[in-house]
Amino acid sequence: MAKKQFKKYTTQDKGVTAKKHLGQHFLKDENVAIQIADSLSYEGYDQVLEIGPGTGVLTKHVIRKGIKVTALELDSESVVYLKHSFPIEHAKIVTPQTFEVIETDFLQKDLTEIYGDQPFAIIGNFPYNISTQIVFKTVENRDQIPEFGGMFQKEVAQRICAQHGSKTYGILSVLTQAYYDAEYLFTVGPEVFDPPPRVHSGVLSLKRKPNHDQLSCSYDKLRQVVKLAFNQRRKTLRNSLKSMDLPDDMREREIFDLRPEQISVQEFVDLTTEIEALS
């Protein structure tokens, strides 16, 4: 079946220009936007948080799923457009009941001010300069976020989804995959953005694991162990975890002969559980 053709607009047509200091590259390809919108299942929640909606190219396709979208946008030009012109252009679907835009920084926003204790999904064409921080905040708020879908710089998306044994496997991989199933969906070229970035992008999907709340160790301790390990990723655990002053009999185990990229997510969880029990 042939793809539906959409009229392409530049951001200048909408009175919005990309800001380099905000890491903005506005998505202009409607078909890519539809594929990103389709990365969520829309099951088990009735609200979606979009980060950095820009000119709403992705936003309207999420709203068409019959779900309320709350968009967090830091760029004042985009906010003006989204609050005034965007509802007029898409009057059939954009109403106060289906869409709200808040001028704020996602990383600084207390999400309970928007959702209380209710579940919500996250979606977006994420600014490259804060994309890893967005994932870490998602993991920290995992009890309310069952799904996450969106676009990153390709290398970052691959890092999030990387398996142990890979050179790209690291802190982000372990802490995300301890709580979410991560899937790399597809690659996107620079030409679908205005302005085009110098790199390719990758779209991924995170689905929260059914037992995410039954992990045998705390997130804080897991983060401590994983960061210590990967901050000296060329060293074995015996050396990188030396500052934790672990018992000699524990340090003699085979896992301490390994470098961090050789250790699976579950092995990190199991090891952290033992370390946490010591204290």
Tell me what the structure shows.
- The structure is a single chain.
- The protein is an alpha/beta fold and 279 residues long.
- It has 2 domains: 11-214, Vaccinia Virus protein VP39 (Rossmann fold, 3-Layer(aba) Sandwich); 219-278, rRNA adenine dimethylase, C-terminal domain (Helicase, Ruva Protein, domain 3), CATH 1.10.8.100.
- It contains 11 helices and 9 strands.
- The strands form 2 sheets. Strands 4-3-2-5-6-9-7 form a 7-stranded mixed sheet, with helices on both faces.
- It is elongated.
- Belongs to the class I-like SAM-binding methyltransferase superfamily. rRNA adenine N(6)-methyltransferase family. RsmA subfamily.
- S-adenosyl-L-methionine binds at residues 25, 27, 52, 73, 105, 125.
Brief synopsis:
With 279 residues, the protein is of the alpha/beta class.
Strand order of the largest sheet: 4-3-2-5-6-9-7
Assembly state here?
single chain
The CATH fourth-level homologous superfamily of the largest domain: Vaccinia Virus protein VP39
Percent helix range: 25-40%
Computed CA radius of gyration, to the nearest angstrom:
21 Å
Q: Into how many domains do the coordinates divide?
A: 2
Overall form: elongated
**CATH topology heading of the largest domain:** Rossmann fold
**Total of DSSP H or I helical runs spanning 4+ residues:** 11
Secondary structure category: alpha/beta
- Major sheet summary line: 7 strands, mixed
Which percent band covers the strand fraction?
Answer: 15-25%
Helices and strands, in N-to-C order? EHEHEHEHEHEHHEEEHHHH
Kindly state the number of beta strands. 9
CATH architectural designation of the largest domain: 3-Layer(aba) Sandwich
Low-confidence stretches: 1-10
Indicate the CATH class of the largest domain. Alpha Beta
Average pLDDT level? 92
